[in-house]
Structure formats: structure tokens, C-alpha cells
Amino acid sequence: xxxxxxxxxxxxxxxxxxxxxxxxxxxxxxxxxxxxxxxxxxxxxxxxxxxxxxxxxxxxxxxxxxxxxxxxxxxxxxxxxxxxxxxxxxxxxxxxxxxxxxxxxxxxxxxxxxxxxxxxxxxxxxxxxxxxxxxxxxxxxxxxxxxxxxxxxxxxxxxxxxxxxxxxxxxxxxxxxxxxxxxxxxxxxxxxxxxxxxxxxxxxxxxxxxxxxxxxxxxxxxxxxxxxxxxxxxxxxxxxxxxxxxxxxxxxxxxxxxxxxxxxxxxxxxxxxxxxxxxxxxxxxxxxxxxxxxxxxxxxxxxxxxxxxxxxxxxxxxxxxxxxxxxxxxxxxxxxxxxxxxxxxxxxxxxxxxxxxxxxxxxxxxxxxxxxxxxxxxxxxxx
Length: 383
Ligand code: F6P
Description:
Layout: E1 9-14, H1 22-37, E2 40-44, H2 48-52, E3 56-58, E4 86-90, E5 96-99, H3 102-111, E6 116-121, H4 123-128, H5 130-134, E7 138-143, H6 159-180, E8 183-188, H7 195-204, E9 208-210, H8 218-231, E10 236-241, E11 253-256, E12 264-266, H9 269-281, E13 285-289, H10 301-319, E14 325-330, E15 333-338, H11 354-361
Parallel strand pairs: 1-2, 1-6, 6-7, 7-14, 8-10, 8-13, 9-10
Antiparallel strand pairs: 2-3, 4-5, 11-12, 14-15
The structure holds 6-O-phosphono-beta-D-fructofuranose.
Residues 17, 79, 145-147, 189-191, 242, 265-266, 295 line the site of 6-O-phosphono-beta-D-fructofuranose.
């Protein structure tokens, strides 16, 4: 063990929407910190909410043993809590009254003698960490989200398991679509990025893939489906990212949560596309919305490995005296970048991505009427 003189104790939290692999990261950070650097860990419950309310508990080796394969997070998470804009009460009309409660969080950090904070989350969580870094707390971020949309890293843990879940669902939809000669539309998550739709769509051999990066023309989709119904196998599978939108229209917003660092919740495009296909093609069409099934369950082996590497590198970065960094993987190599690299940005799919070119070459429709063209030399990233 190499004792780490400057850091004796760290606080760790899981923020934002949960995803498979959070427990694997907690285990990796804690075990590396204890076994290699003699650093103690305390777990903060329910993301920044626990920091505001001083809900902190020690995390022993026993606490983090046996959790590698477990979905969710043993600490709890929260995607509706921003300490700089925290809903402390409600106005008579039901709207939230906000206050800045960063000082309360700083008291919790001091009271529990945390020498550093590890935050596991997406861009919202990294943004929430800003006032702590500004106040002199050393914050190390670990990128998490099924959406795979964080700038600075080629992959986030949770994504590959979500792709497995979506692919399995699309495989199942294939057989029932075939039996009933139907069109099956499957809406997947991803916020403004189409990574889950593209990857699961290609992995399942879906016929139409709709992603936010390529706004679609419903008439093109109808033409492609018509062709497949008449002279193809007589059924079709459409995977649509929740953020996809028609060329002439807007994304569909399911709800707005003003208390969340990312208030917009997308959803509903699957039903919309299905209705249009049914009307235009006169073919029975059904919709499946995968929703939070993509966030639940045990992480895949690939995500367990990714999470273990992210956690190990976070603990090692702290022990090496790194300050205010986010752990990333680029070209399969782990390193760290400025903590705020991902804040306020989104890593969308480049429209020249080789997986889009490959799908087009196989006849997959993106509903945009664009024909296949040979890919550029861009490396097939992230998978
Ligand atoms: O960012 C992860 C994610 O699952 C998105 O794909 C989705 O848009 C959003 O979170 C759903 O959030 P909530 O859990 O608040 O419904």
C-alpha cells in the first residue's frame, strides 16, 4: 500500500439519472482507495441531496463487496437537485421557490472531514460540482450516462448495457412483427443524442433508424416501409430515439421539471411516428417505449470492466494529487481532463460516422432520403 498523505478521506456520490455500472464504480473507487492508498471513503446518499442534508455514511470494504453485478446504486441518486438552485418550498401556485444551498453542502464536507469529492454523473452533475471546486474542494468526476453523450470521453459506462437491453427488445419485436405482418416502432432513450438508437438499431438489423442528428421526412420513411411491405419480408422494425424530430417539426417534450439541472424530458415521438406510418402506409403499426428498462438491471461485462477502470483511475488520480479532473477514455486509453469539459455541451453522433455509413450500405433507412456514400477515414469510435 502507498499511503496518501494529503488525502485521508473522500466523499463519493452518484448524481443524475441512474445507470447500470454505478455500483461497479463505487466498488472500484473504494477498493482502490483503501487497498492501495489507505484512503477512507464515505458515501453521500441520493446525490447532492445527501450533501445538502448531511446524509453521509462510511463505506467499508464490506459495504462495497458483492455489488459489482448489482444494478442501480447502493447510495441512491437524484436528477432533480442542484445546490445552486435548490427548491426549498413551493409558491401558492405550486411553482418552486429556489435558494442557493452550497454553504450547507460545504458544511457537510467539513463536518465529515472529506478531503475530496468524487462525483459520478453526467454533464448536469459535473455542472453542479462547479461551486465546490470554486470553494477549494478537490472534485474528481466520473462520466456516467446511458446516453453516451458526454464531451471529452469516447464512452460512458451504462451505455453498452442500455444497448444490450434495447437490442434484445428489438430482436423480440422482429419475431412478432413477422408473425403479424406489422410495423413495430420502438422508442429508445438518449436525450438529444442517437447513440442508443443507432447502435441497437444496427445490432438488431432494424429497417429504419431515426436519430436526432438526422431529422427525418415521414414520407421517405413511408416509401421505405411500403417497399419492404410489398416486395420485402412484409414487416418492418423502426427504432426511434426519443430526441428524433421531423425535418419540419420539433422534438416532442413529455414534461418539464424546473427543479432538475436538465429540465426537459423528451418522449412521445414513437407513438407519433407509428400513427403517421399507419395513416400513410395503411399497415397495422404498434409502438413499444422501452423507457427506464434501459437504465435498470445488472451491468453487462463490458460495462463492469469500463466502470472498474473508471473507478480505479479516479482513485489513482486523487492519490496522485490531481485536482478537479474528469476521468475519460480516449482511443481506449484512460486519462483525465478538466472537470468542466463536458458541462453545457453534448457529444452528438457525427453524421459521417462509419456506423451510419455501414447501415446505409446495408439498406437501412434513416428517413432522410440520403443514399449511401463511402465512409471517410474516421475511426469507428465507442463500441
Ligand atoms: O440521461 C439519462 C436519461 O435516461 C435520458 O435518456 C432520459 O431522457 C432521461 O434520463 C429520463 O429522465 P427521468 O429519469 O427523469 O425520467
